[in-house]
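REQUEST ID: PR-0412
SUBMITTED BY: lab tech R.K.
PRIORITY: routine
TASK: structure prediction, single protein chain
INPUT:
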Amino acid sequence: QEYLYKSQVAAYESHRVMFEEYSRAQVNSSTGLIHWMLNSAYPSHMWRLYDWYLATGGSFYGVKKALTD
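STATUS: complete
OUTPUT:
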């Protein structure tokens, strides 16, 4: 349980920061952001916004927070 919690927190933080920086730099000179693995074809904890069963993880909520602020 602790490993799952920590992996979701790490995914939340990494994706939130990535999208916040993109939003900040978009005004100056950013041309785009490539996000790898929108969804995962196999069970995974990292680098996906939602899984095979469309269940959201920590990264989904990190991106949501970054784009709605």
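NOTES: Residues 9 and 57 are 9 Å apart (CA to CA).
REVIEWED BY: pending
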